């Protein structure tokens, strides 16, 4: 029944499973001295709606915020260099994420199952990652790192593509589109 908490100013790490499945937790204040949020620290905190990660945190561990289904926004500071695998897994209310310049490693499936995610933005100065119209790529743009689950709706709203053009587009196993903005442009021009 814990609904909010303010962590003391002397704390420098939030350990694994510290708030594991605190399903009533709606808000938390993390002190600026914290440098690491370990794996599964907030996993399953399904009532948590937003989180501001302090600007000294360098690592967000695996599954740190997994299954935080009410999380709509997260602020990742420029101090973060690593986002662990499944860090935001199944954060089904998360709509957008900005990866700062400092991030050099993003684990597999970091944003997997984020069904409302329309865009992942990357700071222009990031040396490891980039984005094209909200899709996360490696810096050289040769590898897709993460295709946001709800990007289809985002593109329909942004470019106004008629619904009938979407029926032939190649899909992934979870029925998401597999083509880029550059592929859409000629189709739209012909329409």
Keywords:
191 residues; mainly beta; five-stranded parallel beta sheet; three-stranded antiparallel beta sheet; 2 helices; disordered C terminus
3D structure, described in words:
The protein is mostly beta strands and 191 residues long. The protein has two helices and 14 strands, in the order ββββββββββββββαα. It has helices at residues 151-159, 181-190, and strands at 4-6, 13-14, 27-29, 36-37, 50-52, 59-60, 73-75, 82-83, 96-99, 105-106, 119-122, 129-132, 135-138, 144-146. It has a five-stranded parallel beta sheet with strand order 2-4-6-8-10, with no helix packed on it. Mean pLDDT is 85; it is low at 164-171 and 178-191.
The best one-word shape is globular
Following the backbone from N to C, one meets helices and strands in this order, namely: EEEEEEEEEEEEEEHH
Main sheet summary = 5 strands, parallel
Radius of gyration: 18 Å
Give me the count of strands: 14
Indicate the percent of residues in helices: under 10%
Structural class by sheet pairing and helices? mainly beta
Count of DSSP-assigned helices: 2
Strand coverage percent: 15-25%
Cα distance spanning the termini: 55 Å
Strand order of the largest sheet: 2-4-6-8-10
Stretches where pLDDT is under 50 for at least 5 consecutive residues are 164-171, 178-191
Mean pLDDT value = 85
